Amino acid sequence: MSNKTFTMIKPDAVANNHIGPILAKINEAGFRIVALKYTCLSPEKAAAFYEVHKERPFYNDLVKYMSSGPIVAVILEKANAIEDFRKLIGATDPAKAAPGTIRNLFAKSIEANAIHGSDSDANAEIEGSFFFSQMERF
Ligand code: IDP
Ligand code: MG
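Above: inputs. Below: predicted complex with inosine-5'-diphosphate.
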C-alpha cells in the first residue's frame, strides 16, 4: 500500500497567496509533511517533469505556465496517500472538481489548476527525486 505522494503548489496558487490555506487543508486531511521546498522550475525542468504529456496539444503552454513563477514542492505521507490525495485535490478541471476539493476552492482554470498530485507510487518516487535528495525524502 502506498504511503507517500508528491505534490506541487503551482504558480497561480503561489501568486494568489494560497500556500498557507492549501497546506492547512493538506494537514487537516491527515497528511504529514516529509519535505518541502519553495523554488522555481526552469523551462527545461518543467519540460522534463511533464515529459509524459509532450504529445498533448497543451504541453508547450503547460511548460511556460509551470515555469512562470515560484512553486512549492512537497512530499507527503499518509496511509493510502496517492489515492486519498487525488481525492483531496479533485478533478483536473476545477469546473468539474467536487465541492471542498483544493482545485474547487483555489484553481483558476484547467491549466492553472493550483496543485499537482502524483498518480502512482512509481511517479511519486520519480517526481519527488526531481526536487529532493534520497535523504530528504526519507
Ligand atoms: P492531473 O494534474 O489532474 O493529473 P494531467 O492530465 O496529468 O492532470 O495533466 C497535467 C496538467 O496539465 C494538469 O494538471 C493541467 O495543469 C494541465 N492540463 C491538463 N489537461 C489540460 C487541458 O486540456 N488544457 C490545458 N492544460 C491542461
Ligand atoms: Mg497527472
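The pocket of inosine-5'-diphosphate (ligand 1) is lined by residues 53, 58, 62, 92, 110-111, 113, 116, 119 (CB under 6 Å).
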